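for ur thesis appendix - NagC family transcriptional regulator. copy paste whatever u need, i formatted it the way the template wanted (i think)
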Amino acid sequence: MNSYANTISFPLHTPGRTAKASPADVRRNNRSLVFGLLFPNGQLSRAELGRQTGLSRVAISGVANGMLEEGLICESGYDASASAKGKRGTLLSIDTTRLHIISVDLSQEHLVQGAVTDLLGTPQQRMEMALGPDNDINADMIVQLVDQLRTDIDSDAIIGIGIAVTGVVEDGVIRESTVLGWHDLDLQSMLERRFGFPVTVSNDVVCSMLAERFFGKGDKSMIFIKIDRGIGAATLIDDVTVIGQNHAGGEIGHISLDPEHGRPCPCGKRGCLETTVTSPVIRDRIRHAGTPEQQLDVIRASGEELASALAMPIGLMDINDVCVYGPPDIVNETFLEATQRRIDKVTSSQFHKHTTIRRCQVGSDIALRGSAIDVIRHYIEAK
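the 3d part is after this line
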């Protein structure tokens, strides 16, 4: 089984596809090439798009005109770099005014967050549902939230619904979400039947990685770590998401660093990373530390434990960029410096370039924006 998903950057294609392409495949590929050169903030003329894609002037004109009519791109000025003797080319860019996405983030504790976004994942309007300590997220809540978000939007302008959720997701089915208590829930089919829009359901850490890749400082090959109630990871290799044969490629939390003497983990093992490097566990250890210096030692130890778990995938896949997302009282300079020191110690060699451990650059809407990107990705592929 292929352990890679379709490429998450644009242009989009399925790796390894060698069969003869149909006209529809060619059209989708050309759209993806053009969209990829413009997304998120590119401005290029038709002539420059032709040069960079290798497509003929006729092909570029047909693709661009179709995307303009569809609302994916817009004309945004004239090429100032063109020769004064010739006609200046019209610049094309992503249209953020006509098409919309409904995004829902189910990864936060005591909160369901939804938004209507533009094609850059920027929330245009938002809605939140607060949950009490005894309230569980259920499908009816999601339906209600989406129903309210779409009320004031022309249905023809909605290209899809994106859901970011904790746990293992396979083809829109939530196979296992221990946080939400869901097993084999086909959320995608349920929402598509209810609303009639295409629906994508993705792991929240993968969504967050997409947002960091396009709107932060993410490299085309990176490891993204999210520290929260649990700890999750997502990996990108040459702009392809590593999913794994069982769609659980980001389950770093259940790597056991001390299988003999570590703390018991709900998964049945001992010493899993999730028993030591999560926000609740670290905060509890800080509360029980005696002095400010001992509290810093807790943060340093947590960073070193994360580095121990990351050393093998960094060396195995030759990754130079590791992005960590988490609350600022945990993922602070002390934590990042400790992680960096240990990574440098255990991975540096003549074969491996320096790996940088850094803080995520995208803010609190990261999962919402990432789920919007996931919708766009599927939309471009499907048309």
